[in-house]
């Protein structure tokens, strides 16, 4: 099951029975069939603003139980490259900023795009942010045996600090990046 795509996108994939033949929904019909609020970021924002008097104080965006096809393999690749295993509990979590290839890849994956949309659509209230993402896999906390999680720390530009130490590129003894596959910049297709 893939839970991160918008209703608009899902309707482009849907086929309906017309005169006994399955056909795609005509593009001009799609806007008539979706709710006005159709992005996860819209739902998160409206939930947040409905419960606070300080919308600009929004800081953390947590996603638990990640199962979509693009994000989960990306996270597995990062865990394997950085920790040598996909069993990475909170105590061994990885944190990346957008200066790293991993951070860029996670920000561009379907789960990261929701954070992207939130920052873009509500920039006037939230101001400039410096996102960091912390990833971990709490095995055994759900029925799937794995529980891939992301916690986005949307640090206001004027405020520093995060609950995770930002991962650095591995260095060789001479101070340059290692030339091993685990430190290549091909994570997630970047």
Notes on the structure:
- By secondary structure, the chain is of the alpha+beta class.
- Helix content is 31%, strand content 18%.
- The chain has 7 helices and 6 strands, in the order H-E-E-H-H-E-H-E-H-H-H-E-E.
- The strands form 2 sheets. A 4-stranded antiparallel sheet has the order 3-6-5-4, with helices on one face. A two-stranded antiparallel ribbon has the order 1-2.
- A hairpin with a 2-residue loop joins strand 1 and strand 2 (21-24).
- The two termini are 25 Å apart.
Annotation keywords:
single chain; 190 residues; alpha+beta; four-stranded antiparallel β-sheet; globular
What structural category arises from helix and sheet content? Answer: alpha+beta
Largest sheet, order of strands side by side? 3-6-5-4
> Which residues form runs of ≥5 with pLDDT under 50?
172-190
Rg for CA atoms: 19 Å
The description of the largest β-sheet is: 4 strands, antiparallel
Summarize the structure.
The protein is of the alpha+beta class.
Task: List the SSEs and their pairings.
Elements: H1 7-13, E1 15-18, E2 21-24, H2 30-33, H3 40-49, E3 60-63, H4 71-83, E4 94-97, H5 101-108, H6 110-121, H7 123-126, E5 129-137, E6 148-156
Antiparallel strand pairs: 1-2, 3-6, 4-5, 5-6
């Amino acid at each position: 099951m893939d839970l991160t795509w918008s209703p608009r996108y899902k309707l482009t994939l849907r086929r309906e029975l017309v005169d006994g033949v399955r056909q795609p929904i005509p593009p001009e019909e799609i806007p008539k069939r979706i709710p006005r609020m159709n992005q996860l970021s819209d739902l998160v924002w409206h939930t947040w603003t409905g419960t606070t008097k300080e919308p600009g104080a929004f800081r953390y965006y947590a996603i638990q139980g990640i199962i979509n096809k693009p994000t989960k393999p990306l996270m597995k690749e990062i865990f394997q490259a950085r920790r040598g295993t996909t069993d990475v509990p909170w105590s061994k979590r990885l944190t990346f900023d957008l200066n790293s290839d991993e951070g860029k890849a996670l920000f561009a994956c379907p789960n990261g795009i929701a954070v992207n949309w939130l920052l873009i659509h509500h920039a006037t209230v939230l101001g400039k942010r410096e996102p960091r993402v912390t990833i971990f896999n709490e095995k055994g906390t759900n029925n799937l045996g794995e529980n891939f999680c992301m916690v986005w720390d949307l640090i206001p530009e004027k405020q520093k600090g995060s609950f995770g130490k930002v991962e650095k590129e591995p260095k060789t003894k001479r101070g340059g990046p290692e030339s091993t596959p685990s430190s290549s910049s091909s994570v997630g297709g970047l």
